[in-house]
Specification:
The structure is a single chain. The protein contains 15 helices and 13 strands. By secondary structure, it is of the alpha/beta class. α6 crosses α7.
Length: 441
């Protein structure tokens, strides 16, 4: 299986920063993230992954909210690690293809071929206003733009051949000009000349990751993604998603075995079940209900007064089709509450650990058993591990769960390659302009 470490300040539980051992300033501390990346590399994990948004997320009183640009952070981590992949989130709605293509090409060069791009379309009004818009583009428009954005980005990465740079001192030729070409893209959203001013990345293209689970998100993933991050609460829902997306990939003519589906899992680990439950209960007791209630109301497009804490969700909530942003996460939260008949207070507790991702509390053996069961029953190709508390949660997973998976033959005991593509067993993409480069030469 494939295992990524999804890193977030002091951990994914919203109250993790309130623990005595947590550093409230960890989100801007390079030493903190360097330690985590090296720890994940010690466990031979595929990558470290950072989420991102071009806007402040929610109430800063709730949890650590000030975050670093992940591409800059990963450039620093590239120098502190040797093998582990480095995946950053970047929005197609609030970036320019040329600048983004250059940033990820640079990260791939600096890391020796370990970069990955988590493609998101960004769904919040605050981000739109940071870029001069009064409202966010529609769900359909964001995905339409994203498809062209990815197309242009790939063209820019391919604007240099792998062997363009000659470095021929005797002939006085640094690069062969016939092997570097403009892209001259004229599309609906972009008109870009090119070429990129950075040579082709070591991996050809950084690994393309996608994290949307709406219908359009799944179609986009089928067309473009090489790894898919998803939130699934139950085994049956995960199996349905897995089968659906793999089928969509097949219909595009791509090999579904080459696209890795990686649900997020929030493990809370203890040496005994009682110890694990104690850790989970301590965290849940530290949730500030007012903050969490306000955030849930915002997600559900309701005023907090319309969501009494000790009653179930209202019956007249909008449908997924009525939602313009984060459709799949909205649907997941409502479905969870309905299927388990949760009160608003109970739902807040369930979401506190991972914002809708599967949270599991137990011993290392129980965590390993759960991952193995999902992996072997058509629910996942691996997992995005989201420790509730950092660094202790990642350390417990690396030291106690990964050895069990290794003993069962489910996870690597050492790296066999140096690039993220090799970790994911992905081939290097060919250059789409190969024939044109050859004709010019």
């Amino acid at each position: 299986m494939h295992l990524n470490a999804f890193l977030m300040t002091t951990g994914h539980h919203e109250a993790s920063w309130r623990l005595p051992e947590s550093d409230p300033h960890a989100g801007t501390d390079l030493a903190h993230f360097t330690h985590l990346a090296r720890l994940a590399e010690t466990g031979r994990m595929d990558s470290v992954f950072f989420a991102d948004s071009p806007g402040l997320q929610g109430d800063v009183g709730r949890r650590p909210s000030g975050i670093l640009d992940p591409t800059m952070l990963l450039a620093a981590l590239a120098a502190a690690t040797e093998h582990i992949g480095l995946i950053a989130t970047a929005s197609t709605t609030y970036n320019d293809p040329f600048n983004l293509a250059r940033r990820f090409a640079s990260l791939d060069h600096l890391s020796g071929g370990r970069a990955g791009w988590n493609i998101v379309t960004t769904a919040n009004v605050e981000a739109a206003r940071n870029f001069g818009l009064e409202t966010q583009p529609t769900h359909h428009d964001r995905y339409e733009r994203a498809a062209e954005f990815v197309d242009v980005t790939r063209k820019l990465w391919d604007s240099w051949t792998d062997d363009a740079v000659l470095g021929d001192k005797q002939a006085g030729v640094w690069a062969e000009s016939s092997r570097v070409r403009p892209i001259n893209h004229h599309g609906w959203h972009y008109r870009i000349g090119g070429p990129l001013n950075t040579p082709r990345p070591p991996q050809g293209h950084p690994v393309l990751v996608q994290a949307g689970s709406s219908t359009e998100g799944k179609d986009f993933a089928a067309d473009h993604a090489e790894a898919i991050f998803t939130a699934q609460q139950t085994l049956s829902h995960a199996q349905t998603f897995y089968s659906d997306v793999k089928t969509r990939i097949s219909h595009t003519g791509r090999d579904p075995e080459r696209v890795k589906i990686l649900p997020g899992v929030v493990p809370v680990i203890g040496s005994t079940e009682a110890e694990a439950r104690q850790v989970a209960e301590q965290l849940d007791e530290l949730i500030v209900t007012k903050h969490a209630h306000t955030q849930l109301a915002r997600t559900l497009r309701r005023h907090p007064d319309e969501l009494p804490l000790d009653r179930p969700l209202p019956a007249d909530l909008p449908t997924e089709d009525d939602i313009e942003g984060a459709k799949s996460r909205y649907s997941l939260i409502v479905t969870l509450a309905r299927e388990e008949n949760l009160t608003v207070r109970e739902l807040i507790g369930r979401l506190g650990g991972g914002r809708g991702h599967r949270t599991f509390t137990g011993t290392p053996e129980q965590v390993a058993d759960t991952l193995q069961h999902w992996f072997t029953t058509g629910a996942a190709d691996g997992f995005n591990i989201m420790p509730a508390v950092l660094p202790s949660g990642l350390q417990a997973f690396v030291e106690h769960v990964i050895p069990l998976l290794q003993q069962r033959g489910l996870f690597r005991t050492d790296y066999t390659g140096t690039t993220l593509r090799e970790h994911y067993d992905l081939s290097q993409p060919g250059n789409q302009y190969e024939h044109e480069h050859a004709a010019i030469a």
